[in-house]
Amino acid sequence: MNIVVVLFDGVTALDAVGPYEVLTRLPGASVVFAATEPGVKRTDHGLGLTADVALREVPAPEVLLVPGGPGQVAAMDDVELRDWLRAADATSTWTTSVCTGSLLLAGAGLLTGKRATSHWLALDELARLGAVAVAERVVVDGRHVTSAGVSAGIDMALELAGRMHGALVAQAVQLSLEYDPAPPYDAGSPQKAPAEVVELVRSRSPRR
Amino acid sequence: MNIVVVLFDGVTALDAVGPYEVLTRLPGASVVFAATEPGVKRTDHGLGLTADVALREVPAPEVLLVPGGPGQVAAMDDVELRDWLRAADATSTWTTSVCTGSLLLAGAGLLTGKRATSHWLALDELARLGAVAVAERVVVDGRHVTSAGVSAGIDMALELAGRMHGALVAQAVQLSLEYDPAPPYDAGSPQKAPAEVVELVRSRSPRR
Fold this sequence. Notes:
Chain A has about 210 residues and is an alpha/beta fold.
């Protein structure tokens, strides 16, 4: 199972690393990080993640995973990336995204008329790009699987793990990662967070 | 607030990136990734994470974060790392770990007699290294904060965020990351996972 995680400068690290940590543990999985030009990509807060290959070297992954992050805005103008996404999607078994990675898929025309999701602050933009935007954590529409903001990629990858390899394998990966979440607050969605928290986050977003 | 995340070859990516994604969003936070020798470190499944500085360049962080992973075994023998941990811990505000990172802290003598945790498969080893090992997701003993396997670092970092900056800031970070976990299975701890899943994971571990 060849899996390509797309990188670009300004990607959000956890968008990529959360699902990577799940998918790389699946039987027969081979995960590579790829970018238009290989090398170290700097995430939105500075961590360097290495893209080991160029996208053009891995034209036909079985699973493609597109993370989001502020760099998505510039990545929308990367014609080589857009063309690669279209070609890879044409033969992929699963085309997936985390957070605003769905905007890259939608911008390439790959989510038109499909149910899909994104970071809660980007759902309007996702709809403008032609998707049927829904505020759910993981959305499966055929072989297109999109997930909500940043941390949602972990849940998405476990969902994929179960669909690809069954519940036993997916649960074993979950246990290996000790993914038994217990956040000290219950503020992870705009429906659950206090209004002042929602307003604070919205006021700091370029998408407010 | 100077925060140093320790890297080494064979680290588990999510151990480092989960809490990084939280801590880097805190007001005034400056996070650097550091290793005995700087450069690209390869995680246990191959992803390259960049250590931008040498440990010796950042001798006195306010927060130090030690991730785990299979590379922890070799890192236990890194005398420079051990000495750095001891010196950094002497002046840190918070000394923290994720997963088997606590074994590195314990191996340096920093958890002796303290309540601490680790990946569920490593609790016995943690106890042998002198800590009072407990099976909890996040353990705070004074200024030493340890967390369970891999994904638990996200919860630990949110706990730290609240203690350092208050609930409003911590909740804002949680909402930014849309950390409203909804795993499709409930198998994230050995108490919750089916027995056959626990046995499968245990049988594949070098710590079984």
